[in-house]
Amino acid sequence: MLPRRWFADPTIPPQTPTLLHALLAGFGSAWATIFALITDVQLLARLGTAFGPFLDMASQDFFGNSLPRRLQESDGDYRQRIKGELLRPRGTRSALVLAMMELTGSAPTVFEPARPADTGGYSSGGLGYSQAGGWGNLSLHYASFVTIFRPVGGGIANFAGYGSGGYLYYGNLSMVETQVTDRDILVKVSAILPAGFLAWIRIANKSG
User: Fold this and answer.
1) 167 near 160, Cβ under 8 Å?
2) Dihedral through CA 198, CA 110, CA 108, CA 126, nearest 10?
3) Helix 53-63 crosses helix 75-86 at what angle (to 10 degrees)?
4) In this predicted model, what pLDDT tens digit does every residue of 14-47 receive, in sequence order?
5) Potential cystine with 43: which of 49, 76, 123, 201 (Cβ 3.0-4.6 Å)?
């Protein structure tokens, strides 16, 4: 159905482009672009294979603005944090301890005034002034005092600073040991605690 003049002249070498090649290449290029777009959409529609800004959009779909990408955070690290939040246990003391350990690297201290295991008791062997236990209060059934320790460090590990006499390196923000802020800690706590539970939070630097 194609005009004969579109085909190559028998005297022209076969590798020489013809009008027919140009016409079919135009169709093929358009369909190849559509196929590549469909392939990308299949990847971007799944959390396990999404990348770039679409991974940020997936996080916003699930968590709103409560789980933004950290500065210079890679797609792989961000994807793992999103998956961790999707399956994270919530609403219990152990869930709070686990979340803080993952975020800061240290276990928080949790004291519930209405919990005998925290307060101790006379003749129980676990009570002593300035040693163990604490004053309990049975009217505080759904309350706790939580001390959370900030992540240790804040610079770039094993790098010398100016004037330190050690070797100097070029660094970037992705090499900083920690980017966890106090606000990150408070947002995480509020996402873990159940409704109606009161927690007094103290954020401190970890000694040693």
Assistant:
1) yes
2) 170
3) 20
4) 555 666 677 778 888 999 999 999 998 888 888 8
5) 49
- Classified as helix, coil or strand, 47 is coil
User: Which DSSP helix (H) or strand (E) runs through 80?
Assistant: helix 75-86
- Alpha carbon 79 to its chain centroid, in Å, reads 7
Residue appearing with tokens 């008791």: 121
Q: Tell me the pairing of strands 143-149 and 198-204.
A: parallel
Q: Quick one: tokens of 12? A: 């022209």
- The Cα–Cα gap between 183 and 195 comes to 20
Q: What is the pLDDT of residues 58-107, one digit of tens each?
A: 999 988 888 888 888 899 999 998 998 888 888 889 999 999 998 888 89
Q: Give the C-alpha separation, 88 to 83, whole Å.
A: 8
- Whether the pTM exceeds 0.85: the reply is no
Exposure letters 43-67 (e unless 16+ CB within 10 A, then b): ebeebeebeeebbbebbeeeeeeeb
Cβ pair 148, 201 in contact under 8 A: yes
What letter represents residue 187's amino acid? V
